[in-house]
C-alpha cells in the first residue's frame, strides 16, 4: 500500500499532466516552460515518495548503535533523512577505563563524569551522527541518574520532567513530517531510561492528529539468538503486532573482492565514535549481526505494507543482500 502522500503526489502529477496537455495551442515557449515545470515537480514528488524521513528517540548517546546500518542505508542509499531526539543529559556511563587515558581524566569516577561526560558524550553523538547522516539533534537533557529497570519514577514525573519531555516530542513530531520513528524495544530487561524513552515516543505518536509515523522497536542481536517479544507488562501501547513479521536487516552478509566487505564496518564506525564508553563498546565491536525491528500493534495492520516496502528497498539498494 502506498502512503497517503504518495497517492496525493500521483493525483497532483495527473492534474499537472492534464494542465500541460491543454496548452497545446499556446506558443511553443510557454509550452516548454510548463513542460519543464512539470518535470521538476514530478521528480520532486517521486523523490518524496522514495525518501523516508526517520526520527530516532533514544535515552543515551550510543543507543543508536542498535540499528546504525538501517539508518545509514536510509540516509546514504535511499536518499532519506534522519533526526535524533536524545532524552538524557548524557552524564552517566562510567566504564571508560581506556578512555580515561584518551581524555586525560578519570572517567570511572562519577564526580568527574557528572562534570565532563555531558559535553564529551554529546560530542561523541555528533560524531556518530556524521557517520549516520543525522540532520538534526534534539537534546532534552533529563538526568542520566543511575542504572535501574524501574521506569515508573521517570514516566510519572518523579525523576524526569516528563511534561517537558512530552511537549518537546509533540513539537518535534508536529514539525518533522516523519514516516517512521525508531526506538529501542522496551522489553522487561531494558534499562529504565530506554523503556521510558520508547514509551514516551509511542505515546507522543498516539497523541498526534492526522497522519502518524510508524513506530518500530529495535535491537541488534546475533543470528543464533532466539528472542520473543509480546509487550512490556503494564503498558498496552507497547504490544507487538501478532500479524506483522519481525523486520530484519542482516549487516553481516559479506560481499566484494575476497568476500571481505560487510556493513558490520558501519556499525563499528559508529561504536568507535563513543570513546568514553570504551568498556561497553569494546565488548560490542563486531557483534550484533542482525538489526531487528518489531512493529507495534498501535500502528495498525494497514501500515504493515509500508514497513515491508521500506525493508525491501533497504535490501535492494546499496551492496548485495540475500
Structure description:
There is one protein chain. Strands 3-2-1-4-5-7-6 form a 7-stranded mixed β-sheet, sandwiched between helices. With 322 residues, it is of the alpha/beta class. The protein folds into 2 domains: 1-50; 52-316, LmbE-like (Rossmann fold), CATH 3.40.50.10320. It has helices spanning 4-21, 28-50, 68-76, 97-103, 110-132, 152-155, 162-176, 192-207, 264-273, 278-284, 304-316, and strands at 53-58, 81-88, 134-142, 180-184, 214-221, 247-250, 290-295. 45% of the residues lie in helices and 14% in strands.
Number of helices: 11
Oligomer: single chain
Average pLDDT level:
90
Give the C-alpha Rg.
Answer: 22 Å
Q: Helix- and strand-based class?
A: alpha/beta
- CATH class value of the largest domain: Alpha Beta
How many structural domains can be distinguished in the coordinates? 2
What global shape is seen?
Answer: globular
Please give the number of β-strands: 7
> Termini distance?
24 Å
Portion of residues in beta strands equals 5-15%
Strand order of the largest sheet: 3-2-1-4-5-7-6
State the share of residues found in helices, binned by percent.
40-55%
| Name of the CATH superfamily of the largest domain | LmbE-like
The sequence of SSEs as H and E is HHEHEHHEHHEHEEHHEH
CATH architecture heading of the largest domain: 3-Layer(aba) Sandwich
What distinguishing features does this structure have?
322 residues, alpha/beta, Rossmann fold, 7-stranded mixed beta sheet, 7 strands, 45% helix
List the helices and strands and how they pair.
Elements: H1 4-21, H2 28-50, E1 53-58, H3 68-76, E2 81-88, H4 97-103, H5 110-132, E3 134-142, H6 152-155, H7 162-176, E4 180-184, H8 192-207, E5 214-221, E6 247-250, H9 264-273, H10 278-284, E7 290-295, H11 304-316
Parallel strand pairs: 1-2, 1-4, 2-3, 4-5
Antiparallel strand pairs: 5-7, 6-7
Helix pairs in contact: 1-2, 5-9, 7-8
